Amino acid sequence: MEAAATITPAVLILLGPPGAGKGTQARMLEAEFGLVQLSTGDLLRAAVAAGTEAGKAAKAVMEAGELVSDEIVIAILRDRLAEPDCAKGVILDGFPRTTIQAQALDQLLSETGQKISAAISLEVDDAEMVTRISGRYTCSMCGEGYHDTFKAPVIEGTCDKCGHAEFTRRADDNAETVASRLAAYHEQTAPLISYYQDHGVLKGLNAMGNIEEIAGNLKGIVSNAMN
Ligand code: AP5
Prior knowledge:
Shape: globular
Bound molecules: BIS(adenosine)-5'-pentaphosphate
Low-confidence stretches: none
Helix content: 40-55%
Mean pLDDT: 93
Radius of gyration: 17 Å
Largest sheet: 5 strands, parallel
Number of strands: 8
Strand order of the largest sheet: 2-3-1-4-8
């Protein structure tokens, strides 16, 4: 009798500058493929709101648009990855962002026998990112993301997903901080494109189209990577 094949949970990485659409696309992939979205930005904002030691250390750094220390981010991600729901497979949104984080992820995955299925680089112009970020808001109940111009709720003032009527804008979505976030991306995160190219898992994706069109192209890449 043949042994049953073991299915290794998928590990997808969404690489891209602030406003590239990582969160928007990750939530769509989550629904489509039954994976878990892990956003280090969301995990850090939750830590700031909860007033944990990590959150206290991260708050000012995030407000300045700089990167939180590798030590804090890796610890937060390691804890979250160990939670049972991540056994379904994960989409990493905003992690890794430095070479040290990428190496730490390789180490974590080698401990669990997992591999990176694909690192998908969302390619967007800097000017487009600023437009996207400056119009962004999210449902304060479920976190669904919207945009003043590109993605309004179907019923004005009501979240499509949960029906809530209050929305929030992020403290770091202002012109000054966006410039720092972009600089941090180009200096510290963009080198990961070569890192994953060298590891044979890089896929490029033009992320300048409309949201549904990009989602269709991304779905094709992910389907191939998971087979
Ligand atoms: P994080 O929360 O990860 O923010 P970010 O990387 O700056 O990315 P964003 O969430 O701004 O953008 P996104 O690509 O998800 O775009 P979205 O889908 O929302 O990080 C925040 C901070 O936390 C960092 O600055 C850092 O301090 C810290 N941090 C986080 N992770 C860290 C790490 N690993 N190491 C160190 N520090 C870390 O889309 C944006 C808007 O555009 C939305 O309104 C959306 O509706 C709209 N939109 C999306 N796609 C399209 C489209 N195709 N056309 C038109 N509009 C679109």
